[in-house]
Structures are given as C-alpha cells and as structure tokens.
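Hey, resending since the last one bounced:
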Amino acid sequence: MIDRTHPLPIKRQAEIVNISRGAVYYRPEPTSDADLRLMWRIDELHLELPFAGSRMLRDRLNGEGFEVGRRHVATLMRKMGIEALYRKPNTSKKHPRHPVFPYLLRGMTIDRANQVWAMDITYIPMARGFVFLAAVLDWHSRRVLAQRLSITMEADFCVEALQEAIARNGKPEIMNTDQGSQFTGTEFIGELHKHGIAISMDGRGQWRDNVFVERLWKSVKYEDVYLKAYETVSDARAGISSYIDFYNSRRPHRAHGGRTPDVVYFAALPATRQAA
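The structure tokens again:
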C-alpha cells in the first residue's frame, strides 16, 4: 500500500490511501491474546463504569475469573488511552509546550448547527488487535461530521478528521476537546487558529463536559464494534464508516423526538447554507 521507494512523499501516499502518516511509521509491538481479551473487557467495563479506576476494574475482573493485578490493569488502560473519569483537583499536568484552554460551554445555550463541535478519540477492539477512532461531532444535532481510524494515537489522524469536517461542513464557532496531547499540539491548535475557531477544553477527567461524544462511543461499540469483532483494520474502517452513515441518516434519537442527526443538523443550518 505504501511504497517507501516511490518518489512521491510518504505523507502524500498516506493521504491518497486515507491513512494517517503516523500509522505509516508505526512499528507495532505484539499484544498477547490474553491481554487483548483483558483490554476488550476493560473497554466494556469503562463504558459501564466510567468512574472506575484500576483498583475497581481489577476487582471486577478478578470476580469474573481474570487473574490480573492493579498495575497491569493500569498499564493496559494507558495503552488504550482511557482513565477513570472523576474530578481530580490539582492533578492536571499539561505538556510544558502545549497550551490548555478554558472550558467555554458551561451555561451556554447551544441551539444551532455549527455553533459548537466536539472531538474525541476512543479505543476500538478487534478480533485480534485494536485501533483508535477519532470523530468530530456537531454538538446541537449529534451529527458525526468526520471520522478517522488509526493504529496509533498520534495527532495526524485527528488533524485530518478536523480538516475533512471543515472542508465538508464549513467551520464551527467553538471546538471542544479534552486536554489530550493530540488536541493541544501545535498542528491541531494551529488548524483551529487558522480558521478563527474558538477553543474550549474539558476539565481533566470531566467526561460530562464532552458527554455527547461519550454517548456516541457507546452507540458505536454496542451497536456495531462489539457485535462484529472486525478482523482487519480495513474491515473496521469500512464497517464503522457504514455504521456512522446509519447513525447520521437513519438512527432516530430520543433527544430529537425521534428525528435523525441529519434531519436536525440540516434544519438548523442558516438558510444560505441550506440553499448551497
């Protein structure tokens, strides 16, 4: 797929085949089948108990017959990019060269499309192995505006998803993310600044600040990923893309009175955008 001897730059080759540049340079370390089973179950428990830390998850796993200690659970959680979601005063440690921005949405009425977008990353288990999914979500309509799959947690695939969302839908007034390094790095922040987008960031460990993305992850996993156990990255990319199309266009949302995200999103656009 990627020809390292070709005169075309690797970055451009990655763009053509729709994979992140970080994935091209990534050299995976094998993960044992036992750890993959543990990671799958930790992911399910994390959706059910987002406040559970390594000790609580260890106890739950031990009760289910998994022989695992707290430190190994914590190691796997770091590998998956998840943490217990609760308020942790004075523990936020930002990258010394990365800015962290205040949370702008508290008390705000969000009642139109492209007023606020949210973005996040989640761990996606497969039959053998795992990948990471990044998605851009319109806060008002819950419509997924762009998504990317990657075998690493490098920032590239997040920037690519953001660029695609803007190219297809225009720009939001505010982008809300967590404080992960993918979203505080120069490339991602620079893209927001370039388009004049205000930046909002969740408090550390505050999943409620980005609750609609968390709900999206639950839908994606319980209605698609866990049921299908994708065999390959290509299968996961095609399958999740198909599910997102369904989620946007055909899955009714109770919060919208049974309407789909597509219906709510396009109805809430300014008349000039709808005409376009």
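The domain at 116-275 is CATH 3.30.420.10 (Nucleotidyltransferase; domain 5).

Sorry for the duplicate.
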